[in-house]
Input
Amino acid sequence: MSFHKLISADDIESMNHRKGKHQVDHSDNNGTTDCWQGWQSAAQYAYEVLHEDGMFHNTTGVQAKNTCARFVYDRTQRTDIEFRNGQQQVKKSEPFAPNEVEDVIRFAAEFRHTKGKMDKKPIELLMWMIFVLANVFGWYYTDEDSNGRSGERRFTKAFTLVARGNAKSFLCSIISLYIMQFSPNGNPSCYSVARNAKQAKIVFNDAKKMIKSAPSRLRQKFHIMAEKLQSWGLDGLFEPMASDSQSIDGLRVALGICDELHAHHDAELMNTLISGISATTDPLIFSISTAGIQLDGVCINERNHVRDINSNLEKVDEYFGIEFAIDERDDWQDELNWPKANPSLGFAVSMHKIRGEYIRAKKSAANRKNFLTKFLNVFVNTNDSPYLDLLHMQMHCARKGLNIRDYKGRECYVGLDLAQKIDLAALSLVFPESDGSVTVFQRHYLPQSALDSSTPAREEAYIQWEEDGNLIITNGAATDYEYIKDDILHYAKQFDLQMVGYDPYSASQFAIALEGKGILMVEVKQGIVTLSEPSKIVQSLIAQGKLNYDEDDKCFEWCCANAVCFSDINENMKVIKDKTKPHDKIDSIIALIIAMQLAELKIPEPKNPYGKRGLVQL
Output
């Protein structure tokens, strides 16, 4: 059950500190913030997001709302954790500050902004920033924790996905300097890791500038070097690291920042940081990013993991995450949706700037991809001549709760792309609907040897898809065709299986065996003339929102994203994969196109224009 259903209107109202005994003045901000600089603003943010009359309710996306609902549930329903705000009765034996949230906010206020329109102005945090900091530093386990963690800080991992320019690096700089100065660990080591040295230094350089902007009494507590920062009090260290995970392997980590996670090829850097926190008190691994172009990379995996946690589908109590992005069904061209990805709009980010980027986005596909990823936080594919608009497909064709068991006895067509026996193979089941649409279910198969030889990022995606039930890993060095054969025979019993289309080049013996079992097998040659029409039909169905597929099938979406178009002089179309990306697969969409070559679509009956209004006399 979602956290939204586990909390009440009274629970949300209890987060409102604008009235009653908790009332605070939110207007004293000098135009550089939207809130009071205190712990109350964390609870207030949850209220403003979740309450239907809240100031952020209509400008916050579903994913960030889920994070807020989790926060309210934890504040109001749980007793094994507590949100320390300086009002609890704290035991003398507890070694940490009872109101660390206030400490962090006050610490940030010692510095000044170092760039943008707020350059040189004292730092005042926005409400969403206080919400993030409060979650990271405010939650502790109580004596009622069954795992013996009483007095320990709750979150050891955090993930923030937010559009470009919203000051996420600035936020990490504050966290870095604070942990260097006040960590419960001696010699706290902080690292910022990224795919390249330039990216790794962004948070580091921001921190250096902030130190230089601080009052002398605070500035004297740090020692600035070209490639390192040191704090004198605890002998803390902050150092940027690029790409080579071995350089941080074995280090004891108090804070690890994974910057622009979307650009990381795999999770190796993150995992190396995680391995370094085991002997550290109250450690933190903080990943920050905008969206990117890897649809199966470590960043999108972490994003999906956080989504499941905030939807109460996974129980991972030590992981905090928040995602600011337009929603999947939102019109990306409607500027009313843009604030969902830009919580610093009006402060660090201007609507004028985003409008300018939108104008550029309408002029070319490349600009559009940049706008969607960097300003709206939407992951997109990168092909120069994409066969499908994946964003449109996700918005208009992905269906929640599709279950193949509901189609028992229904007319069905199957397409097969067996490809090479040592690679991904796919099967597509197509069910024509009475309204002219189709519902499709995809099956994907991969031999264990192909999994073992995959790149780390691809291997992570394959394993995730197997766990999700959208990929079958078969034993051995080649795809087990017997497994696929058994699936087809099973489908013949469950559905009204009309015929199975296959490529005669790669599946002749396979087809002969199934024909012997009474299955009608139809050759579908892979030439451009043969596949042009069904390719165009699939394209048209998606454009109309008439191709229904399971929204959780990320393997199918990945294959769709990898597909590009080739057209001849007669405007015949063939779907191929980008030759510059040999590891990308398109088998699932090819199987669908083969099935569509056989399928007979239903022609919906014309609507009676008099059905609702009756006859009209003139």
Notes: Residues 45 and 197 are 35 Å apart (CA to CA). The first strand starts at residue 81 and ends at 83. Residues 20-30, 88-97 have pLDDT under 50 and may be disordered. The two ends are 56 Å apart (CA to CA).
